[in-house]
Amino acid sequence: MSAVIVEKSEARKIKSNGFISKFGALIGLIILCTVLTILSDNFLTVDNVMNIARQSSINALLAIGMLLPILTAGIDLSVGSILALSIMMMGIVSVNHGLNPYLGIVVCLGVGALLGWTNGIMLTKLKLPHPFISTLGTMNIARGIALIITGAAPIAGFAAPIQFAGNQFVGPVPFSFILVIVVYILFDIFLNRTSTGRYIYAIGGNKETARLSGINVNKILVIVYTLSGLMAGLAGLVMVGRVNSAFPLAGMGYELDAIAAVIIGGASFFGGVGTVWGTLIGATIIAVLRNGLNLLNVSADFQMAIIGLVIVAAVYVDVLRQRSFKK
User: Fold this and answer.
1) What is the biggest distance separating any 2 CA atoms in the chain, rounded to whole angstroms?
2) Would you tell me how many other CB atoms lie within 10 Å of the CB of residue 99?
3) Residues 167-223 pLDDT 10s
4) How far is CA 167 from the centre of its chain?
5) Which of 93, 215, 232, 296 is most buried by its number of CB atoms within 10 A?
6) Three-state DSSP class for residue 169
7) Which residues, in sequence order, are CB contacts of 210 under 8 Å at separation 6+?
8) How far apart are CA 232 and CA 57, in angstroms?
9) What is the pTM of this model?
10) Residues in Cβ contact with 272 at an 8 Å cutoff, skipping those fewer than 6 apart
11) Which helix (H) or strand (E) holds 89?
12) Could you give the CA distance from residue 221 to residue 124 in angstroms, rounded to a whole number?
């Protein structure tokens, strides 16, 4: 029976993947790059392109984690706070206590995964009505703990192994960008070549029908939120590598950029629709837009307004797509 549900979810994906749904984000990225190339001589240079690749890495990692809850018609508002607590714990272990930096990396990723798992458990075992509530709670709890255990003070002076992911280059290419590509390939395989990945799409298509078909919905949701937390920890590791410091207010508002990347990339808030590579394009669009606006000396306030309009437009397109699907 579960195979039938998976086939129906695949049919929904195919139906939703019209030309605009499939290539709209890519076309938008090409148009955006073309306009910025015309407006600024400094945009289409090797240094700036590599800078964009580096700048997009943190949001790209958060976004691929965010894709999973959104595919199940959920959301994870806690990723920014999970990032902060993960890197502060890494700092306490590897800097304050002088323990092995590789242990610090394990702690960073482990704390992220544990907090994500906690989100999943609260959603499935405590029967909270929507992940908005459980992850909103985790967002505040994790942020509060990060501030309490450090006295709101930053931690600096991380060892080279911790800095590697954020500040190393392979030729002209940032290692963080290579890491993003590897992670996205793994997630593409996970979502499209495994039964768990197909079940994620099925749950997003219709959770109750998926449950009645024999899919262990609660187990899949715990996996989804655990992976989202893990990606927040990994994004935090890259961030610390870039700036060689961790601070408890890190990641504030990052969940919004991650959500925006997923939706701009063609995923649906209604669940069951979205792709790995569309999400990467969405994260790239946000990075390109911020970079281009900086090159054009647009103020930060106007940048927020412009990016907000882009997000609203992407959500509106999602609503129109959903109405079209229902027809």
Assistant:
1) 61
2) 13
3) 999 999 999 999 999 999 999 999 999 999 999 999 999 999 999 999 999 999 999
4) 20
5) 232
6) strand
7) 2, 5, 199, 202, 203, 217
8) 12
9) 0.92
10) 9, 12, 13, 16, 71, 73, 201, 202, 203, 204, 205, 206
11) helix 79-91
12) 8
Q: Quickly name the fold that domain 2-326 has.
A: ABC transporter involved in vitamin B12 uptake, BtuC (1.10.3470)
Which residues lie below 8 Å from residue 71, measured CB to CB, with a gap of 6+? 191, 200, 201, 203, 204, 224, 267, 271, 272, 273, 274
Q: Does residue 25 or residue 227 have the better pLDDT?
A: 227
Amino acid at 183: V
H/E segment holding residue 111: helix 101-124
- Let me know the angle formed at the C-alpha of 243 by 135 and 310, rounded to the nearest 5 degrees: 50
Q: Where are the beta strands (DSSP E) in the chain?
A: 155-156, 169-170, 173-174, 245-246
Q: CA gyration radius for the chain? A: 20
Residue located via tokens 């990339």? 265
Contacts with 63 (C-beta within 8 Å, 6 or more apart), sequence order: 257, 258, 261, 262, 265, 279, 280, 282, 283
